[in-house]
Amino acid sequence: MAEVSRNVPPQLSRMSTTSYFPTIPRGVPKAAISYSQSVNEAPYTALMGVIVDGRYPERHAVTPRCRVRKQVGGTNRWRLPDSLGSDLLGSRQAIKSINMPYNSNMINIITAENPQSSLHLEADKPYVFHQVVDRPVTVSQVPSTASSKLGLGLLSRESTVLVRAPSRLRGPTPSTSGPIRKFVPANARPATPKDIFLYHSKKSQSFIGPGYLGPLSKYDVVLKCLGMDWELHRPYLQKSEVLSQLLKQAGEPHMQKYYRNPASETLDTYIKKNNVYSNEYKDISNRLSMVEGDDEGPKKLDHPAHTSEKRISSVTMIKLDIKDPLITKTAMAVALGNLYHDELDVDLEDVANVLAASSQIGYKALQNGCARLMLNNISYKTVCRYHHACTKYQQEEVVKACERWLELNLLPELSNQIYLREISMELLQKILKSNRLYVPNEYTVYRTLSYWLFLQLNSSIQLMPSHSTVLSYFNSLPKTGSFLERDDGQIYGPLFSAVRLQGVTDTNQIRDMQLMNILPQSQLIDLLTQHYHALQGGGDMSALKHFNTGAIRQGFIIDDEPHYHSEVLSIHGFHFELKAARNAIGQLSIYMQRLKPGDPILSFRQCESHTFSIRTDREVRYCIMVQDSGDDLKTTGIVSQKFGLGEKVGKSEILQLDKIRTPLYISFSLLFPAS
Prior knowledge:
Elements: H1 2-7, H2 10-18, H3 35-46, H4 88-99, H5 104-111, E1 137-140, H6 146-151, E2 160-163, H7 193-201, E3 220-225, E4 228-233, H8 241-250, E5 254-255, E6 258-259, H9 262-273, H10 279-289, E7 290-291, E8 314-319, H11 329-337, H12 351-361, H13 364-375, H14 383-392, H15 396-409, H16 425-432, H17 442-457, H18 467-475, H19 493-496, H20 507-516, H21 521-536, H22 547-550, E9 552-558, E10 564-571, E11 574-582, E12 588-594, H23 604-609, E13 618-627, E14 633-635, E15 639-643, E16 655-657, E17 664-671
Parallel strand pairs: 3-8
Antiparallel strand pairs: 1-2, 3-4, 5-8, 6-7, 9-17, 10-11, 11-12, 12-16, 13-14, 13-15, 13-17
Helix pairs in contact: 3-5, 7-11, 9-10, 11-12, 12-13, 12-14, 13-15, 14-15
């Protein structure tokens, strides 16, 4: 080192000792993750599991400000994205927060200028941006005369532009442009029937759409229906039997008078109905609001034709009177709009109303399309509405499909939904008397009827009531007699006659029936008498003569891959196991077997409190029926057999199924004849 120093010139040696050399600057720190991004990605990073190199995922700096928030996603656990490990509850909540859409709090956090400003806001007030001049402001380009139009109730669309102030203005000075106007996009408002009609008609490029305000083709047709003027085109109306017939009767087009715009029509209608204005003024207003179709000859400058373009020149006017409440303006717009294209374009929400509208105008292709759409979308939400519309307009295939769906799902599904109120009494009675009705147990029939009756008497209820609510309501009625014995309750008597009361043996269920006081006391006394005689007579049901109307029903549904399913049916001291089991070759075996006292499948309560008969042979008439969601039905028929306590003599006939198509509705019906 000394040799190197000797070779350095003295000027450089002196400079090295006196000069300043700055230290190498540190690396620029990585930009911290924004708070909103950290909140958004926290569930994903938490679900990544244990990191291999031991480092935790990158996250926003932990400060008191960042830890203040109301909610993240669908849960409140994802403040910090630590690995979950074996936290099963945390994993479940993380998955839930990922699958759920953003709520209002999350949107405020992500879109806010400052995360802190989006927290703890008042729930009933919207977020207000800071009013600074460098923020885009909304400036209206509507003339000042718009205010006078608003006074007459004539609303016009406002076009808006975004204007940014010069970038040199950076101070927090108040903006001189006034408060920001609330702008609602056109697609945010509900679609009107005219909008729906225009959407469908635009699919055809042969003719201009009905929203066009200029002169239309000379073959144009105006349909007056449901209080609206529908502008149609003659070639497309040939698809409709009713409209084409009306065209033939109407003859050739001729000149018509029309309102220049809907606002003029609204104002003129108001003047006509108001008694304040004189008849002379009404005539003047009507004349000024209308435009002659003939545009030949000069007009003065004050002629109303100069203020707006004429809508039509020469048209054929037809009129269709409709008084069906199923046919709405929206449904008519969809039905008429489908005349302009061949493919079916109908929303599921409106398909029943569109079917009614298409039937009214005689559009067979649309009727068949709506029927096919209904067949593929029957559910507890739509079955009653579809059945009502298709019954009225002779769509027998859909009617049968709805009734078939109700036979299988009335008691297990529809009875638990508020849509139960929509089923009519005639249809409900027809389904309950069907031999193919799936019944989980006899008490569900009574329970469904009591819920349906409650919904009919309380039409303002919007949610399905609880059992205690229904029980309390009927128990609060006057005790002068049962509900079915009152004048307003006698019409419901045939419905409750479909309940096979002899199958209700549980004491708690019988007590609820007594508290509701719907059925006459004589029927309940007769029920208890039959139970007593059956217990004393070895199970004989001497009062029941016909199997199809008196057999006790119980069943279950197999809606997944079946391997084994078992239930217990207890009646008058005899206990049967209702079983469905799959064997080694994939066949499903369905049968019932009599149980011995103390059998392991019986619960402790059943063994302790239920009556057991040790009768060695009990003649039973039974029927096992298996149905799927289609029309497939397999049954043993009505079989008479003596059941003993032994394994070989205590098993019924076995029903084998090779092909299984879930869900399967399995029903057991049995009756003890007099011995």
